[in-house]
């Protein structure tokens, strides 16, 4: 079978969304780190914000793992290449344990746990139940006998008697230990807004939050039992990480917007660009007055431009610089929040905020999601970044939508799953600019980084060959 290596690991699963998985994961990592255990964190699924919080709690870059976006083999490779073999790897699930792509639970947290041969700690909301909680756990055990549910953490426990009765019922009926019992917590411990949690970059009391999390879990989570379960995970076959291939031509310079308004970047995407021959330059749309003149391409990720709309709209010199760059043919790839920045206006809460006007349409922010879930796109028209004929996988989660306009908007993709920009179309285009509501992961879509770098090389000759 080849070289087997040990990677202690735990999947934190839940009975549903909002069951307490994130609080448990963050609190557990604080306890482990205080005990001197090195921690690496992973997030099941495409969520940027939860991954940012996991990175904060583990003090290391957190990676997203998703079998739909990346495929099972690449999920295992990514985990092995970023996991710790001596400490503990904490993988936070999403939604309910078996909730996935379809009724069979394809691409669920359970599927990821099986893919990684990882034991599961099941977070159960114990509010207003006792023995019924045992039925929840037993049902999860019986639904998939191949899944290693090794322990339970109760959340929202109201008192000692509630804790004892519920714990005893689960342990006697299910044959697995309850390794944690957490009380009800005050709302707002982790503040939320329309896309989920507020990112840690905007949370100005993270030090106090860390103390609050420790106070919540200390004496209520059995660290030794948790470590024992994680360390019992079977070894995995080692997969040699390929050595980076030196670029065959000179480095290209690619900018990316990085500030409080634009934070949604998978670390793997930025790293893959660098491995493909890009020198990355972070630029703030809030503070810079212009794009750097030496850029050969620009990547605009998602984020919360709507909550920074006034500041963005007020930075007229930068918006003009962005519009001029688009007009002169700079390759620009924009995702979700980046699409908003390239619109003519952002409409939010009855206020119109001027944007870069690269595209002739407005974008309005709505009160409910306009697109949410996995997406599949078929590239049907020539564009700066992808060859025609291929299928791309990604995800979308946006409250905004493109407001219909009289102008004809060119698109490059048909939406085969998901919502897209409008009328089951995706990749709105003008000049060398592509904007999309779909986020892609470079590990599962290697064409993305290659397309960005190739477009940059086509725009201008390498710097070392210029006169």
Automatic annotation (TrEMBL):
Catalytic residues (positions): 336
Segments forming domain CobQ/CobB/MinD/ParA nucleotide binding: 11-187
One of the GO biological process terms: cobalamin biosynthetic process
Domain CobB/CobQ-like glutamine amidotransferase, chain residue ranges per copy: 253-442
EC number, as in UniProt: 6.3.5.11
Associated pathway: Cofactor biosynthesis; adenosylcobalamin biosynthesis; cob(II)yrinate a,c-diamide from sirohydrochlorin (anaerobic route): step 10/10
Keywords noted in UniProt: ATP-binding, Cobalamin biosynthesis, Glutamine amidotransferase, Ligase, Magnesium, Nucleotide-binding
Catalytic reaction list: cob(II)yrinate + 2 L-glutamine + 2 ATP + 2 H2O = cob(II)yrinate a,c diamide + 2 L-glutamate + 2 ADP + 2 phosphate + 2 H(+)
The protein's required cofactors: Mg(2+)
Pfam assignment, any one: CbiA
Site (Increases nucleophilicity of active site Cys): 439
GO MF, one example: ATP binding
Miscellaneous section: The a and c carboxylates of cobyrinate are activated for nucleophilic attack via formation of a phosphorylated intermediate by ATP. CbiA catalyzes first the amidation of the c-carboxylate, and then that of the a-carboxylate.
Family: Belongs to the CobB/CbiA family.
Protein name in UniProt: Cobyrinate a,c-diamide synthase
GN (gene name): dsrN
């Amino acid at each position: 079978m080849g070289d087997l290596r040990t990677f202690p690991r735990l999947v934190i699963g839940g009975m549903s969304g909002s069951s307490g998985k994130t609080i448990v994961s963050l609190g557990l990592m604080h306890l482990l780190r205080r005990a001197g255990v090195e921690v690496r964190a992973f997030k099941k699924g495409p969520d940027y914000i939860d991954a940012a919080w996991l990175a904060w709690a583990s003090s290391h870059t957190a990676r997203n793992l998703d079998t739909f976006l990346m495929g099972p083999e690449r999920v295992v490779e990514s985990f092995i290449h970023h996991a710790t073999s001596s400490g503990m790897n904490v993988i936070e699930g999403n939604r309910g344990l078996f909730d996935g792509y379809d009724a069979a639970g394809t691409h669920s947290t359970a599927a990821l746990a099986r893919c990684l041969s990882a034991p599961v700690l099941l977070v159960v909301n114990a509010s207003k139940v006792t023995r019924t909680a045992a039925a929840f756990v037993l049902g999860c055990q019986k639904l998939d006998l191949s899944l290693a549910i090794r322990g339970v953490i109760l959340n929202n426990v109201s008192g000692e008697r509630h804790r004892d009765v519920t714990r005893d019922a689960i342990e006697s009926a299910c044959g697995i230990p309850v390794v944690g019992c957490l009380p009800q917590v005050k709302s707002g411990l982790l503040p939320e807004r329309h896309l989920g949690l507020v990112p840690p970059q905007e949370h100005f009391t993270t030090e106090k939050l860390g103390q609050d999390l420790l106070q919540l879990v200390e004496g209520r989570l059995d660290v030794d039992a948790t470590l024992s379960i994680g360390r019992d995970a079977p070894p995995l076959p080692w997969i040699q990480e390929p050595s980076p291939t030196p670029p065959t031509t000179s480095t290209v310079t690619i900018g990316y917007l990085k500030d409080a308004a634009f934070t949604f970047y998978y670390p793997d995407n930025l790293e893959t660009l660098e491995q493909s021959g890009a020198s990355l330059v972070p630029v703030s749309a809030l503070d810079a007055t212009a794009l750097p003149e030496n850029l050969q391409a620009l990547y605009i990720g998602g984020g919360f431009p709507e909550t920074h709309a006034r500041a963005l709209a007020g930075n007229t010199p930068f918006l003009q610089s962005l519009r001029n760059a688009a007009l002169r043919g700079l390759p620009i790839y924009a995702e979700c929040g980046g699409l908003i920045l390239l619109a003519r206006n952002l409409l939010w809460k009855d206020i119109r905020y001027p944007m870069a006007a690269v595209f002739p349409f407005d974008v309005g922010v709505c009160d409910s999601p306009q697109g949410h879930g996995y997406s599949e796109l078929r590239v049907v028209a020539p564009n700066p970044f992808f060859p025609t004929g291929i299928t791309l996988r990604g995800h979308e989660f946006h409250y905004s939508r493109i407001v219909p306009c009289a102008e004809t908007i060119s698109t490059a993709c048909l939406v085969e799953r998901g919502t897209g920009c409008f009328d089951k179309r995706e990749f709105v285009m003008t000049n060398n600019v592509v904007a999309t509501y779909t986020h892609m992961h470079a590990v599962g879509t290697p064409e993305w980084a290659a397309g960005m770098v190739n477009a940059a090389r086509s725009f201008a000759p390498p710097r070392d060959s210029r006169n």
